[in-house]
Amino acid sequence: MKISVLCFDLSSNAFGRAWLLAKALSRVYDVEIIGTSRKGGIWAPMAHSKIPVKEFMWDRYPKFSRVKKNILDAIDGDLILASKLMPTSFGIGLQKKYSSGKPLIVDIDDWELGFFYHSGFWGGVGRFLNFSNPNGLPYVWRMERLVGEADAVSVSNRFLQKKFKGALLPHCRDTSVLDPQKFNPDEMKERIGLADKKVVMFLGTPRPHKGLDDLLAAFKKIGDLNVKLVIIGAENQQEFLKRVDHSIRESVVVLPKTPFQKLPELLSAADILAIPQRRTSDSVGQIPARLFDAMSMAKPIIATRVSDIPEVLNNCGYLVDPNKPSQLADAIKYILNHSDEARVKGAAARARCRQKYDIHNLESGLSGLIEQVIANKAN
Fold first, then answer.
1. Backbone angles phi, psi at 320, to 5 degrees
2. pLDDT in tens, 232-291
3. pLDDT class for 119, splitting at 50, 70, 90?
4. Handedness of CA 123, 125, 128, 129 (dihedral sign)
5. Which phi and psi (to 5°) does residue 190 adopt?
6. pTM of the full structure
7. Which residues contact 341 (CB under 8 A, 6 or more apart)?
8. d(Cα 3, Cα 26) in Å, to the nearest integer?
9. Taking a C-beta distance cutoff of 8 angstroms, is the pair 265, 183 a contact?
């Protein structure tokens, strides 16, 4: 049986969830990933994916109509799995379902409208009138109203489950790959020029709702040059550093986006993984995937009380309130002064990840969903 996984933008971090779904399914099924690429190519951290990818260049309407037809012709799986509630994934999947009768599952890991709503009323009005963008607000709004047309729904967190129903399938990780026993933290610190330093690491694209500004503000309060903030994922390291307050610039190290294969060894250098999500319309409907990277690598984690983070960690990390740099600073200092306790929490986080959030859990959940859809079709 072949499954076509639809990704709305291969060149963005949206590829991460699509790839994760495809990877879990590839243990049992023949799988391919199909989608548009707005910037051209595959998202850098997973550019060397071994899963077959069919790429189509993104364009605006009316030119996108031709692109869409080409994608529809390329979907040759027996079942379609659309990653994200977006027109260039779920919308195209629906069209293929209507024309071919192939079953369609939609996987929702973000509240897409939340990303539009953060711009306020007039910003929302402007976005709603953006009809040339295939993934513009009016079309995304329509996608939410069509969720019931899918043969099955899966979601990554409870906010989305409450909104759209469906099976809860959180982000997962291959804990045999993200295994701290395979790496030497001291060697990795030396390689990145931070030997004998304490490292607080932030992983991910530095967007406002991810709370990096709060973390930078926390470092102003820490004021210790032996404690370094390592940021992985900024598009342009030098441009980003120019925006960092001069008083803490010596404490900040910016590394480029890292291929997924090399991520575990970089994470091994962290003494703390910080996930300071803010509570906004962007973040209430998502659970940060990097939380599971940190758990799998047995790292002490500081995170905020947003979305399902407290439930996922379940006392295996340190929680602070969102938008509170002073609490972040206090938590960082506490962990560095209580390293034995932090090590125990990190080990507990890995054990919890292996039990509940290993990729085998995702494989089992998806396979069950697919079997249910096939059985329903047969009846």
1. -130, 165
2. 988 777 788 888 999 999 999 998 878 888 999 999 999 999 999 999 988 899 999 999
3. low
4. negative
5. -65, -40
6. 0.93
7. none
8. 9
9. yes
Question: 328 is in which domain, residue-wise?
Answer: 180-356
- Considering its fold, how many domains does the chain have in total? 2
Looking at the fold, whether 129 and 224 belong to one and the same domain comes out as: no
Identify whether residues 329 and 367 lie together within a single domain. no
Same domain, 168 and 33: yes
pLDDT band of residue 122 (cuts 50, 70, 90) is very low
Q: What is the CATH number of the domain that holds 57?
A: 3.40.50.2000
What are φ and ψ of residue 366, in 5° steps? -65, -40
Assess whether 140 and 257 both reside in one domain. Answer: no
Buried b / exposed e along 36-51 (16+ C-beta atoms within 10 A): bbbeeebbbbbeebee
Share above pLDDT 70 across residues of the chain, in percent, rounded to a whole number: 97
Give 25's DSSP letter: H
Same domain? For 35 and 58 the reply is: yes
Q: How many whole angstroms separate alpha carbon 306 and alpha carbon 296?
A: 20
d(CA 33, CA 3): 9
